[in-house]
Amino acid sequence: xxxNKIPQIKHTxxxxxxxxxxxxxxxxxxxxxxxxxxxxxxxxKLHIPYVFKGSFKKANRSRIDSFTGIGDEKAxxxxxxxxxxxxxxxITDIHEVNDATMAxxxxxxxxxxxxxxxxxxxxxxxxxxxKTINLKKGQFMSPESMKHAVQKxxxxxxxxxxxxxxxxxxxxxxxxxxxxxxxxxxQYAPVVLDVTHSLQQPNQSSGVTGGRPELIGTIAKAGxxxxxxxxxxxxxxDPANAKSDGANMLHLDYIEKLLTxxxxxxxxxxxxx
Length: 273
Known about the structure:
- The chain is α/β, with parallel strands linked by helices.
- The chain has one domain (3-271): TIM Barrel (Alpha-Beta Barrel), CATH 3.20.20.70.
- Helix content is 33%, strand content 18%.
- It is built from eight helices and 13 strands.
- The protein has helices at residues 29-46, 72-86, 97-104, 120-127, 146-154, 181-185, 216-226, 255-271; strands at residues 18-22, 50-53, 90-93, 109-112, 132-136, 161-165, 168-169, 175-176, 191-194, 200-201, 210-211, 230-236, 250-251.
- It has an eight-stranded parallel β-barrel, surrounded by six helices. A two-stranded antiparallel sheet has the order 7-8.
- Helix 1 packs parallel to helix 2 (72-86) and helix 3 runs parallel beside helix 4 (120-127).
- The longest helix has 18 residues, at 29-46.
- The radius of gyration is 17 Å and the shape is globular.
- Residues 8-268 form the DAHP synthetase I/KDSA domain.
- It is an enzyme of class 2 (transferase).
- InterPro entries: Aldolase_TIM, DAHP1/KDSA, KDO8P_synthase.
- Belongs to the KdsA family.
């Protein structure tokens, strides 16, 4: 995968990690633009290649009454507006084969959710659009098995594949990041570490996923030190009232300090190569 082939991506000549960040779900235009404006400002200052992330719909919910979205086309148009307003690429996840061509009209990267990364029809539909494909490693999969997911993208004559590690299921209610998998998966494609979903605590009795956002910095710093190519994080200016995954999101007020520290670590690691 070549980072500079992603439309509108900036700062690719700075040897920095790249960042996929934004809210879990698109809740409305104002919130998306507010989050994007803040993150774009910080990433431009720190010369971090940035992609705005937002789910146009949430299909993998614990309860039937959970928030799923504001409408597919409405949310996708907001993602397009973010891209046009701030001149940045965008990414969204898809859940069904028919989502691929629809979402590809609005965003630059299609993301395959961790629970669905073994679904061949979905991966092929996404790869066939020609967009960059972000493959989230299944919580139930080994790093070595992601080679086959990447190969499905390559077999569609699409070389733009990314692997994102979002932790491995440990018991029923916890996720563990096995940093040994990073160099393994880097043999197949650039590797991103999802530092917010890796701290989820799923399968809560309430039906609402929990999380440990106080450890986001710890996981992110370890990931940069271990050599990841990029980071994925969900952020919001009011996580407590976010409509999805608020329990493990990074508050927007903390993002500049964290990214500054991570850039400093990255510079040290890069100089040692």
